[in-house]
Input
Amino acid sequence: QLQLVESGGGLGQPGGSLRLSCEASGAHFDHYAIGWFRRAPGKEREGVSYISTSGGHSSSAESVKGRFTISRDNAKNIVFLQMNSLKPEDTGVYYCAAVMAPYGTSYLFQRENEYVYWGQGTQVTVSS
Output
């Protein structure tokens, strides 16, 4: 019922910036909470940032706090992940995921197994 497509990945320089996008094609986008996850080579997938249905609440992993910002534009069915001050350890495949939730709820889904819909992922490589 919901399709997610990530874009914006590529090669970034340490200290540089990249902006990822997650575009949804399904209806009632404002009924879905969204999370960004990533999988580094040889490691388990981990949560990065999360945002509520309205965009009024968000949270990020300690490893990216102060550097990454998640936001959404429900009128355009899109979620962004602005990545600043990139580090080599940010390298990995980034996925956006969605789970149904009532519009306006402040609850943040922060566990991978809570999400139902997943995008295909976009590669981010940070290297000098």
Q: What stands out?
A: DSSP finds no helices and eleven strands in the chain. The radius of gyration is 14 Å. The chain has a mean pLDDT of 96.
